[in-house]
Amino acid sequence: MTGEVLAKREGGVGILSLNRPKAIHALTYGMVQAMVTALLEWRGDDGVGAVLIDHAEGRGFCAGGDIAFLRNSALNDGGASGRKFFHDEYQLNHLLMTYGKPVVAYMDGITMGGGVGLSDPATYRVVTQATRYAMPETGIGLFPDVGGGWFLSRMKGRMGQYLALTGARLDGAECLWAGLASHYLPAENLGEAKARIAGDPAAIATILRELSAIPPEPKIAAHAAEIERLFASDRYEDILAALAAEDTDFARTTLKALATKSPQTCKVALRQLATSLTLPDFAANMVMEYRIGSRVLLMPDFAEGVRAVIVDKDNAPVWSPATPEGVTDDLLDAIFAPLGAADEWKPL
Asked: Is the peptide bond before 102 cis (omega within 30 degrees of 0)?
């Protein structure tokens, strides 16, 4: 088992600790495989009453997926290894969603992209004063995957659409208010929480409640009504027009942020969330997301977005298409179209 994931038994729980601190525990393919292997083993073990997911050290839970690996795949192997990464990572997301035993995710610090894919399906989602939650994919030309279509579309108001398009960061108090977290604990209480749960996994809810604290006021709540009104449409051009017509600092700041995002990704995200609401279950959502991922991995915006934000760090991506109007319905239809029967995503 890779040293980038530390899998161990402690008392009545299995613990998966992400251990790639120099990359803020961004997920590699080996880490995905290691977690799946341990989860499948523990699922049939009556001695494991729950699974805890945390990070071994460093300043964040998980910063996302291995974006450099995915870009390299797009540029050098026709996306083959990137598609395999998506396929197996999505199987991990689905396994967590349907696990059958309680899963506790400790979202202490940065929790973004692939980290959200580990935490959102968890039974208990614990945030702290250090939590910084985001789905920032529109800024690199990808899309809010790892189950983002399912979870974001089902948030109250239009908060999910706002997060998907802007990549805005929420702190722990805001995550709790928005329903993305189940408990807010001071970071200094996490060690006690883990130890007590290991000793009595049947009492997780009680333990987390006893160690919880009253969070600060969630700043995003003040803008909830504004977000619900301005992001009401599933048409990206309508959202941009509504923001442009709104004479508030929040609208101006949001419009400025959206101007830096991939128009293609923003339109994909809106259709993704709208479509997810029509799907019968999480597996169907992941079939849709794998179709999208298989296509956008090889489209110009992903390689360009990663170049601009992560490789060259000039933060000046040249998107293609360059405008929302250039992202046609035909293009979106092609991105969302079924794959060949042998290529479709399937759960474990």
From this structure: no
